[in-house]
Amino acid sequence: MDQHASTLLAFPPQDDSVDNETYHKAAVAHVQRISKMIKERSRDLVVFSAELFNVLPSRNPVVDPAVNSLSYLAILHALLFPSLAAKLPQDLILQKLVTFMMVFDGRQCRYGGPPLLEIMDAVGSGRLLPPSVAVECLASAILKLDPSGTILTSSHILLTKLAYDTDNIQPALPVIEKDIVYYPGMANHQDAPYLCDLELPPPLYISKTSGLTTSLKSSMVLEYDLVGGMMYCARREWWKARKAFERVITFPTKDGGCSKIMVEAFKKWILVSLLADGRHSNTPPPHTSESTVKIFGILARSYVSFATAFATDDVEQLKLEAHNNAQLWMEDGNVGLVEEVMASYQKWRVLSLQDIYTKISIAEIRQQTKSAETGAVLNKDEDVEALIHNMIIAGMLKGVIEKNDDGTKFLLFLSPTTHLSERELAKEIQGYAAKLREIKKIFTATSQRLGTSKEYIKWVVKESKRDKSSEAQDPTLAFDTQIDDEDLMGGAQDQ
């Protein structure tokens, strides 16, 4: 027991100011010692786990999950795999698991590799913890390893599926709302010499080689954004849902191909566009290939017709489109979205009146707008007033209801311009500055990756041989046209 405790507590270094090289060597040596212990005396970790976890009195210091994270990980792994150990009560083991996932040292656990990923996979599968707890633990672990949240990993895929399938979306949002910039195995990203360097971009320490993620197929990347969009739909965050579906629609493909999941996302993109903007743009998202757009137009023809009717005052045509395609909505799993669209129709018709009026009576609004659910005007002015109040509360409409001396009520449309106070403006500027600092790090890492790309070097050499008349042009402007589609996603492998 004493010997094991001494080994487990030997890391990290007591001096927090050690340089990356010293820390790295100490971490590697510690991992080797622990690996040897697990290989030769794994049973001892189970036998003495109660004392090491401070469940039973011991004269040795206990292993702290926030301080001795690698050692704590080793004990947990021995208790959890191949199956839950019987030495401690299972509830207690799972309690220790939750504590570890919420407090472990992200820098230290960069050296945790396969054991940590195996634990994260088990948590993400939902077989160890209640779904609400599992989602929160997995989200916490992902952000401890990568606080920027900019690299997509196999753990992200598990997180979205578990959160959406069990309706535990809120705890997953801190991860889902991050902008993905990197993917495992991207070209020209080699593993760093010192994984502990806190200035490293995520791809240099989160990789298949480091064991903190598996490789991702292109279908997994598509599924991540599709499920993410559906999570936003469940929260009625239509703008975010639209962006997520757009990422699926514009996913780079070879030879202008189009997968089934891309078509599914396009259909949902049309519906959430109606909810977010009150209309469907005839212009596809940027970077969508012409051949892909044609395929979308054919396979989603009914959705386009429905969206076209939505943008008009012809409520009967909209109802007809909705009714005639009821079976299609059901087969595609979009019944709920279509119902949301139909319920929002009259709200968007009210909003369209501000293009004509600055002030209009409630009675006129009732006569000029109809409900898509009934196809008729609302029964009384009070119903229209309630509809407008709900729109104002939801932030959909900027306006106020006024009452004349004769009792007539009017809707006054207000300017969308918002005047910020000096304090609010300063806060907004600080937010933009922080965002720019984050982007600078990403830009630097991406520039380094691009600068070592053989495709880019070939392009620069080719450009240097051109006529001097073209010297003023930026060689990067046309570079993207020279790269094959599969290179754009780096480590995302085709299925």
From TrEMBL:
One GO cellular component term noted in the UniProt record for this chain: COP9 signalosome
Entry keyword set: Cytoplasm
InterPro entries, sorted: COP9_N (IPR055089), CSN3 (IPR050756)
Any one of the GO BP annotations: ubiquitin-dependent protein catabolic process
Pfam families for this protein: COP9_hel_rpt
Domain of life: Eukaryota
Region (Disordered): 464-495
COP9 signalosome complex subunit 3 N-terminal helical repeats domain span: 34-284
Protein name: COP9 signalosome complex subunit 3 N-terminal helical repeats domain-containing protein
